Amino acid sequence: MTRDTKLKNWIKSTPALKRAALLSMRVAPALRASGILRIPRFIREWRQFRSSGGEAGLLDFHPCLFDRTASTAVEAQYFYQAIWAARRIVHAGVALHLDVASQTMFVGMLTAFVDVIFVDIRPIGLAVERLTMCAGSITQLPFDSASVTSLSSLHVIEHIGLGRYGDPIEARGPERAASELERVLAPGGRLYLSTPIGRPRVQFNSQRIFSTQEIVRMFSRCTLKEFSVVDAASVFRQNVPLSTEVEVEAAGSDFGLGMFVFEKRE
User: Fold this and answer.
1) 218: nearest Cα among 228, 208, 233, 232
2) What domains sit in the chain, N to C, each tagged with a CATH number?
3) Is residue 205 reached through a cis peptide bond, with omega within 30 degrees of 0 on the bond before it?
4) 89-130: per-residue pLDDT in tens?
5) How far is CA 143 from each of CA 98, 107, 237, rounded to the nearest angstrom?
6) Hey, what's the torsion of the CAs at 58, 59, 65, 68, to 10 degrees?
7) Which residue of 76, 138, 227, 259 is 20 to 30 Å from 64, comparing CA positions?
8) Do 227 and 240 meet the contact criterion of CB atoms below 8 Å apart?
9) Nearest residue to 110 via CA among 154, 147, 158
């Protein structure tokens, strides 16, 4: 047993030390420069809470100093893509859907309507009804060829091969991922795919930005049935022409999100 492990076990076995350690983890984000300026208000309101009859001990502090905003912050691309994909999957009336590495909240909510198999190199350590977890890579899916009729992979393909999530470095990672998605998709089956679109480039090791034509070429064994976008100004537009301009600089961003529905040809 290492010295660090012994120290952690000692802290965990001592209630007061455990509470102090958890407090330090909760307080740390508040100690950055912009947070320090907000601490006086936090202390003032804590005192007001206590004077009104509330109880809140120091070791249970959990400063949330950045949530008091005029509007609720939301990642527009993830918000819209979840709505876009879920509506289409549910409308299709499939009994079983396979998702590869999409946002876990989307996958979980999808189980309210359909049985879901979720594949990721980092499996979820939770259990929920109608959800089957499967450890695997998008470049080597553990499924037979032409065996999947309903498939999604949202905001995933742009990361493949950049090492961000522990995957191997691979310059042609997206192409390998696309080939594998096509391989498992059955004739007539549908793939719901989203990825950043705009001026083609690699933002190592975060993501890639693709042109719409690049994505269509990657899925040469499929027919494009629908194209929708969330542009850089967070405007959601459905069923638009593939040539739709999305490279609008707004809100500090210079790329949009392309959402593609592909159907595997017979």
Assistant:
1) 208
2) 3-60 (no CATH), 76-264 (3.40.50.150)
3) yes
4) 999 999 999 999 999 999 999 999 999 999 999 989 999 999
5) 10, 19, 34
6) -80
7) 76
8) yes
9) 154
Is residue 42 packed enough to be buried (19+ CB in 10 Å), middle (13-18) or exposed (0-12)?
A: middle
HEC string for the chain: CCHHHHHHHHHHHCHHHHHHHHHHHHHHHHHCHHHHCCHHHHHHHHHHHHHCCCCCCHHHCCCCCCCCCCCCCCCHHHHHHHHHHHHHHHHHCCCEEEEECCCHHHHHHHCCCCEEEEEECCCCCCCCCCEEEEECECCECCCCCCCEEEEEEECCHHHCCCCCCCCCCCCCHHHHHHHHHHHHEEEEEEEEEEEEEECCEEECCCEEEECHHHHHHHCCCEEEEEEEEECCCCCEECCCCCCCCCCCCECCECEEEEEEEEEECC
The residue length of the chain stands at 266
176/245 Cα distance (integer angstroms): 27
Locate 71 and state its tokens. 């509007």
Two tokens at 265? 């040809």
Question: Is the distance from CB of 236 to CB of 253 less than 8 angstroms?
Answer: no
Residue 64, judged by CB atoms within 10 A of its CB (0-12, 13-18, 19+), counts as exposed
Per DSSP, what are the bridge partners of residue 23? Answer: none
The pLDDT-based confidence of 232 (bands split at 50, 70, 90) is: confident
Q: How far apart are CA 104 and CA 90, in angstroms?
A: 17
CA distance 11 to 246: 52
> How far is Cα 141 from Cα 181, in angstroms, rounded to an integer?
8
